[in-house]
Specification:
single chain, mainly alpha, two-stranded antiparallel ribbon, 13 helices, about 60% helix, binds Phenylacetyl coenzyme A
């Protein structure tokens, strides 16, 4: 179990369906024992396709997520901040690579997945469709967006699909580092000049609600939209509901905002003694659904940049393929 992880009585995957489809007895036994399903194991087709959907969306989020922060590499306020930001953006590219590799173990091709992204048949996280207007946005992304990512992703280190779970261990270690550097950058601003403090507060005001939306729609209750949570939890892919993870994020973040000397833009945010959690205001899920549909402030720009980068990188892919073919041919000739 990874260091930041947490468990609850609802944490164990559900029991297998009755009757179990022939050939899937081992799958349900392994899931029930909290073991790992590996690429060659038998698995339900909807388990496989749902994992492809989630892992691909996650991978796409990592590489599109390079854009909002990448825009600030040339404008970072010092060489130290520039070096840190370059390393962070590079880490996100690496996360994309681990995740595309994990998806490929499920029998899909990375080129196919990228094509689905470029043609709008697969998505990426809503959060990367918001603009980075000032340097304070970079600290805020590290603090809130990476913070939310960690809360969501640490339980995925115990996801039932082995290659995804193993990829997440390294991703989460790096995300923890990203979160801390974001907090430190924002702390410097919030304890700086009045203008710097104001800039930090403005960034937090803009990123708070979109960060809460990262966890997805409600998965139970009157406002729930029928999503993937129930099935995903039965398979041991998701360990917690979207709402439980969101609550955990709020509970973790409020004291951090106090340490920063910044306020969170929610008049309904207050400690609830009887629940032992912070209450918070209603999220505007219409905004989330609009952003997912492609109508966020930066969707068009992010996709145009992504498609252009893909086209401009064609020669690199061709050269790598030619090199791999040449090396394989040489190896075969050597063996003969
Ligand atoms: N954005 O039933 P659920 C990062 C869709 S962190 C867009 O709850 P599920 C690090 C969902 O796909 C960000 N779409 O679905 C970083 C589904 O659509 P469908 C990426 C969203 O899968 C930091 C529908 O709504 N993290 O990149 C969103 O069980 C800084 C119903 O939703 C991950 O991908 C959303 N926010 O749960 C990088 C983590 N929320 O397919 C750079 C792994 C929901 O029915 C810089 N993924 N939808 O058409 C997950 O944990 C899950 O897939 C959830 C959604 C929790 C995102």
């Amino acid at each position: 179990m990874y260091g930041n992880d947490f468990a609850s009585p609802s944490d164990a995957p559900s029991a297998s369906p009755e009757p179990v489809e022939p050939g899937l007895e081992d799958f349900w036994r392994i899931v029930g024992e909290d073991g790992r399903i590996e690429p060659r194991d038998a698995m339900p087709e909807d388990y496989r396709s749902s994992l492809v959907r989630q892992i691909a969306q996650h991978a796409h989020s990592e590489i599109i997520g390079m854009q909002p922060e990448g825009e600030w590499i040339s404008r970072a306020p010092s060489l130290r901040r520039k070096a840190i930001l370059m390393a962070k953006v590079q880490d996100e590219a690496g996360h994309g690579l681990y995740l595309y590799a994990a998806a490929e173990t499920l029998g899909v091709d990375r080129a196919e997945l990228l094509d689905m992204l470029h043609t709008g048949r697969q998505k990426y996280s809503s959060i990367f469709n918001y603009p980075t207007l000032t340097w304070a946005d970079i600290g805020t992304i590290g603090w809130l967006v990476d913070g939310a990512a960690i809360v969501n992703q640490v339980p995925l280190c115990r996801c039932s699909y082995g290659p995804y779970a193993r990829a997440m261990v390294r991703v989460c270690k790096e995300e923890s580092f990203h979160q801390r550097q974001g907090f430190e950058a924002l702390y410097t601003l919030s304890h700086g000049t009045p203008q710097q403090h104001e800039m930090a507060q403005d960034a937090v005001d803009r990123w708070w609600w979109p960060s809460l939306m990262m966890f997805g729609p409600h998965d139970s209750g009157p406002h729930a939209t029928a999503g993937h949570t129930a099935k995903s939890m039965a398979w041991g892919v998701k360990r917690f509901s979207n709402d439980d993870l969101r609550q955990r994020f709020v509970d973790m973040t409020v004291p951090q905002a106090e340490a920063l000397g910044l306020t969170l833009p929610d008049p309904d945010l207050r400690w609830n003694e009887s629940r032992g959690h912070y209450d918070f205001g209603e999220i505007d899920f219409n905004e989330l659904f609009e952003v997912i549909k492609g109508n966020g402030p930066c969707n068009a720009e992010r996709m145009a940049n992504r498609r252009r980068a893909h086209e401009e990188g064609a020669w690199v892919r061709e050269a790598a393929t030619a090199y791999a073919e040449k090396t394989a041919a040489r190896r075969t000739a050597g063996a003969a």
